[in-house]
Every structure is written in structure tokens, then in C-alpha cells.
Amino acid sequence: MAARTARATTTRGKKVVAATNKDDAVTPPTKTKASKAASATPTRSRSGTARGGNGNTSPYFDKKAKGKQQQAKNKAKRNETDDELSEPTGLTSESELSSSDSGAESAFDPDSDDEPEDDEVMNGDESESDAEATPKAGTKRKATVADKAKAKWGRGAKGRQSGASAADAVELGSDDDDVELEEGQVVAGRIYPAPKTGQVPAGQVSRNTLNFLSLLQIPENNDRDWFRAHEPSYRQAEAEWKAFVVPMQARMSEADDELPVLPPNDVIHRIYRDVRFSSDKTPYKSNFSMSTSRGGKKGTWAGYHLSICPRGHSILACGKWQPSRDDLAAIRQNILHDPAPFRAAIGAPAFVKLFGKAEPGKKGKPQNIFGHSDELKVAPKGVDKTHKDIDLLKLRSIVVFHHFTDDEVTAPDFIDKVGAVVEVMTPFVHMLNDYMAAPVDDDSD
Q1: How much is the pTM?
Q2: What are the structural domains of the chain?
Q3: What is the Cα–Cα distance from 438 to 444, expressed in whole angstroms?
Q4: How far apart are the C-alpha atoms of 356 and 346, rounded to whole Å?
Q5: What share of the chain is helix, strand, coil (3-state, %, to 5)?
Q6: What is the C-alpha separation between 241 and 120, in angstroms, rounded?
Q7: Cα–Cα distance between 66 and 52 in angstroms, integer?
């Protein structure tokens, strides 16, 4: 092998080894146009601040080579690229959005993070047009699939953690929308619009309301993320329910003249569940409901409870559910003293037609006022187990239920149907209130 001698020369303070043998000459590495653009083009970090290109300048090229002529050449190439492309290179086109993001909620994967870290730089093999297409400060850009995948709707949202305020969040009606994002905006989640058809006049319940409640019955939907995304539908259903409650109270007051007509908020129940002392942490109820009595929703009197729940679970109940110790003691004292009014109320022909015979059902099956889960298994303290009214004395919750189908709930005459049932329930409710209002003295005969 031919002997070689080497000499060291210095270029810009760095040593370069050059060989004297022609066959073994060291060829200086060359850069492609893409790598030049990657090193020279400023990039934008996640925080939105501009960052310069690669700071390591090659020792084989002089900085002065990039003069006015080179800048003019690059500008001409950029203009040619803009003419050929319908949108900036590197952003997802509309067709790609429609194919990869077809409207499923799973498209917003909270764990995905396709955005580069702050300390990352462009790869050397990236094309010049991609590097030149970095949006400038103050310009708009289209939301990409990566932007949407990065969105976190609810718990631990990346978009929320990045410092974007709620006012900067972009609401999406569908995944196929091309959303123009201002500087500093992020896609925070998806808001589903409320139904635009199927509305009903005040005093009726629409299919839209039952559909929303049926979706809440699905365990995967009954959480805060899903509820926030469908809040417009909830607000529409809630307004419809409040508009229904006003004429409903008026009809119930016609059947029972002891019932007042109150503002909707004073009789309806909130959709949010109290989960503080419950093993079931489901945050939302899957029904709309209202309660009223001679003392209003929170009174201690026997009253009425109307609940709208899809799939045939809508009910109208009346009576006293789990009365207090004093109220229950007063009812039992009156039963021991004179059970006739009680027997007459639950044995009335119209009452029996709706709720069954006034006797315990076979094998503990619920019937009339009997068969509830909190009913005593043995006689109350101080009462003989062979007492002739022991079936009444074992009761704790004294209530009856009437069920409605979904078709009955959405029918225009639903208020009249509820009012007709209230008329049958009224004597029973008045009897319970009389029993609680006039406890019998133990020394009376």
C-alpha cells in the first residue's frame, strides 16, 4: 500500500484532514437542498416562539455563500410550490380528514400526542417545501388529524394543560369540518349540536328527550366527558321538561285541590346524582322527575312523584316513601285505632283496577301497597303477630306505582292521562295525610 502523508489545515477554527494520495482523497460531505432548508429554515416550537435552524454550520461551506442571490432563488422556488399545491404541504387535506376521522368519538384519543417535543428539530431528509410551509405568527391554519387526536375532552386534557383558555377552545360540530385556528388556539373537544327537528309544543314530551335519556342509560356514556359533549341536547331536553311541568301541575291541581302550582324549579329534581355515600358513582340520572304535595317538593306530607324514563320505565307514584319515625308511628297508631279509612282507600274499585287487589301478592310479589323491599318480616314491637291488621302494620313505605309506555309519554294527551290517574290516587293520599296530621293518643279509647 502506498504510503500516505497528511497535512492539517484549519478552516473556521476546525481541523480538516486532506490526503496526498489521489486515490485515497477525502471527499468533503455534501448537503442536499432539503438539509439546507432544514438547517436554515426557522421552526416553531410548541409554545409558538420562533426557533432558528441547525446551529452547526458545515466547515466546508462559507456563510457568505447565502447572499441575496441564494435568497432570491429560494423565494422563486417557494412561489412555484405555492402554485402547485392547493394547501400548505404538511397539513392534512380535506379528503384525508374525511377518511381517517369519520365521526367516531374515539377519534379524539386523549392519550395520543403526535406533536414533536420542544427540543426536536427537523430531519435532514425533509423536503424543502415542507420546511417552508411552517405557519408564520398571526396566520391561520387548518386543523389536522394530529390536532384533533391531541385534543383531550375532560380529565387531564392536554389542550387545557397547554395554557389555552376556554374562550380559545374550538367547538367542532363534526370531524369533517375544516376549522381555522387562530394563533394560540387548540382543539379542546367536540360539541354535538342539539337536534334541530322533532320539537313539540309546550306541555308535551318529545322523542328527542327520551333518546337523550336512553343514551345516558348506557354506562359508557354516563360520565362527565360525554355529558359535556352533549350538553346542547341536555339543555334542550331540560327546557322542554320545564315547559311540560307547568301545565302538568295545573292538571294535577284540578284532580287534587290541595296541590299548589309552583315554579318549575321548585318541583323538578336535578339530573345530578348525589354519590357521596353511594357505591354507584354514576354522576347522572337517566330520567327527568318532579315531586309535589300540599307542602311542595320538600314537604313532609304524602304526595305525588312523576318520573319520565325511556324503555317503559316512566312512572307516577303516590303515598309516603320511607316516612320518618314519628310519621310512621302516627300511621300505625291510627291503623290500630281505626283501620277502616285505610282499607276503604286501598280497596276502592278504581284503585284496585289500577294497582291490584288490596292484599299481599303471592310469594311476596308487589301488589297494591304491599311487597316493597323495606316491609317488615315480623310484627312491629309491641304488636301481636296475629293481629288482624298485621299486613298493614308491617308496612314502612306506603306507596303505589303506575307505569307508562314510551308511546303514552310522547302522546299529546299525556297530561290528561296523568291527571286521570291522580284522580284515583287522591283519596289514598288524603287518607295518609289525615293519619299523619292527627296522631291518636295512647290513652284514648
Answers
A1: 0.61
A2: 103-120+142-191 (no CATH), 245-437 (3.30.930)
A3: 13
A4: 9
A5: 35, 10, 50
A6: 54
A7: 16
